[in-house]
Specification:
Blueprint (H helix, E strand, L loop, with lengths): L2 H26 L3 H21 L3 H22 L4 H21 L7 H6 L7 H30 L1 H6 L4 H23 L4 H12 L6 H26 L3 H22 L3
Helix pairs in contact: 1-6, 1-8, 1-9, 1-10, 2-3, 2-4, 2-8, 2-9, 3-4, 3-8, 6-8, 9-10, 9-11, 10-11
Length: 262
């Protein structure tokens, strides 16, 4: 197997494995628009990296985390609804990123950032992805019950003494980190689909939250393998191929569920 294919496969599988459990919380809490907002801020991170000549991986993570903290701060002021805030932040971050990129001397391939460029993943990219996902995975495992509690019944969790704001912020930070490292895999415009489609497939068959998280990881991994294979065989763009594969798996899972007895 060619080195670049192996790196692409490894990066895609690492992202898919942790995107599955986190994507479940995105689906349960109906946070898909939040994922889109973070994805737009990733392009702002790219622009900041190009302007300051700092590692793009680092500036993308900083931009996504900064937007997550800003959203929590604005939400607590309760002056505007969350969906309105998300709309403002998403389009502002995207517009600012595009304007800043116009001031750079670099010949930027925006298509690669918008739709991913998995086949160009380097060894350095792999280390960034692996390190970030190791932290995210550890935090998800350590805080699974807390995250699940505020998802099932936020008011009850607060009555029981759980710091709901802090746990909610933790969830946003973890999603921000996933979005930041996923940009190379599927691109800014398609990141949220990797968080939503696999858990949506798993929802048809899972009986417990834990089983849904596991099935979502497996579906995401299958989509990565299918998308990479399609890209290799038919020279299609890798990121969109992965998302399309996930969509096909969703359709198949829906048909399978409808045809099952009972």
């Amino acid at each position: 197997m060619a080195d670049f294919i192996f790196r692409a496969l490894l990066a895609g599988l690492m992202v898919a494995l942790i995107a599955g459990p986190l994507g479940c919380f995105v689906v349960w809490r109906r946070m898909s628009y939040f994922g889109d907002t973070l994805a737009h801020s990733a392009l702002l991170g790219v622009a900041l990296g190009l302007l300051t000549d700092i590692s793009l991986e680092l500036t993308v993570i900083i931009a996504c985390l900064g937007l997550a903290f800003l959203l929590v701060f604005l939400e607590n002021r309760r002056e505007l609804s969350t969906d309105t805030l998300l709309g403002i932040l998403a389009h502002s971050a995207l517009a600012l990123g595009l304007v800043l990129i116009s001031f750079t001397d670099s010949q930027v391939n925006l298509v690669a950032y918008l739709f991913g460029d998995l086949l160009t993943v380097s060894a350095e990219n792999l280390w960034w992805i692996a390190g970030t996902l190791a932290v995210v995975t550890l935090m998800v495992i350590m805080n699974w019950n807390r995250l699940l509690t505020i998802t099932l019944h936020e008011e009850l969790a607060q009555v029981e003494g759980l710091d709901v704001v802090r746990v909610r912020l933790l969830l946003m930070v973890l999603i921000a980190l996933i979005v930041a490292v996923s940009m190379k895999v599927v691109g800014v415009l398609l990141i949220t689909s990797l968080l939503i489609i696999p858990p949506s497939c798993a929802r048809f068959f899972a009986r417990t939250p834990e089983s849904m998280a596991i099935i979502a990881s497996l579906v995401g991994s299958a989509a990565v393998c299918m998308g990479l294979s399609a890209s290799w065989l038919w020279d299609t763009p890798t990121g969109p191929s992965i998302v399309l594969s996930a969509s096909l798996l969703f359709i198949a899972s829906r048909l399978l569920k409808n045809s099952a007895p009972g």
